[in-house]
Amino acid sequence: MQSERWFFWGDLLANGVVGVAAAAAGYALATSALPVWLVPPLALLGGGLGAMMINMLVFSRWLGAMETMLPTLLSGMLAGLIGALTAPLGILYAGAAGAGVGLAVFGVLALLQARIVAQSRRGIWS
Amino acid sequence: MIADGHTRRKWDRAAARYDFMVAGGQERRWAPAKRAMFSTMGAGPILFVALGTGLDIPHFPADRDITAIDISPAMLERAAPRVAAYPGPLRTAVMDVRALDFPDAHFDQVFTACTFCSVPDPVRGLRELFRVLRPGGTLGMFEHTGSRYFPFKYLLDAMTPLSRLVGPDLNRDTVSNVMRAGFDVFEVRPVFLDIVKTIRARKPL
Fold first, then answer.
1. Which of 3.30.43.10, 2.40.70.10, 3.40.50.150, 3.40.50.1000 is the CATH number of B5-146+172-202?
2. How many angstroms away from the CA of B50 is the closest CA of chain A?
3. What is the pLDDT at residue B1?
4. ipTM value of the model?
5. CA proximity to A98, closest of A29, A36, A5, A7
6. A17-66 pLDDT per residue, tens
7. Best of A5, A67, A73, A115 to mutate (most B CBs within 10 Å, chain B)
8. Burial of B101 (0-12, 13-18, 19+ CB in 10 A)
């Protein structure tokens, strides 16, 4: 059975990887011939759906579907958008920004989890 | 008694791929929380609702007196080897939780795992559990529910019409439903955010 540490690093890696992939997709959209107004919504949607696909095909088998589905969806959507917005700086910057977004989502959710656990101990359940 | 052919057919169809879908990382990740909850199983008669393919059976303490039901005959067929391997009395029956074929106050404890995300009219099902549980008896649930936090609340609401076609709802408020059915909730332990959790409740004396 995997330890909590295994899941911690697995979640961190999953969010980072989908962040990079979604940012690359956002970069590709921004550097394509698409109208500028169409790029942000497509990057948001494509990043989210792409991240969900990567999660379902790769990470959920090891890390659990529920625990990875929503974080990677969120990471993918935001990283797709960031990748499109940072496209003028080049693909390396876009990818790094995407990884940063994925790791930031992971961090925020870890804080939220700690808060929910603390509330639950005080009897705040809904 | 089967009150709902649609739900039965949905889970019969899902039976063949169920273990592949959930028996990997998800089950390993949830195993400690499930084992902790099932460790509260006592010596009296226990009802386990929605056995599925029996993935939870290895987490049950040995030698408990368990009756396990599921709405899907195909799921129970697949559960048969795990049922046979359980070291204790474990009986299975095809039954709809909303129309239980048991007398009032028949069980000391009731347990569910990822059940009330899928039961249509969940409060009706929970009221049936309330009926068959003896006064003072406990309900233990491992469930995934909706979330109260942005943006998860809206994402889970948006995904539910699709997820419902092949499996569960993702946006249930199960803690409130348990209270509405008449139970006193005395413990809720979050497993993943406020989405995956264990719920323990008691039927008032």
1. 3.40.50.150
2. 19
3. 54
4. 0.85
5. A29
6. 999 999 999 999 999 989 999 999 999 999 999 998 998 888 888 888 77
7. A67
8. exposed
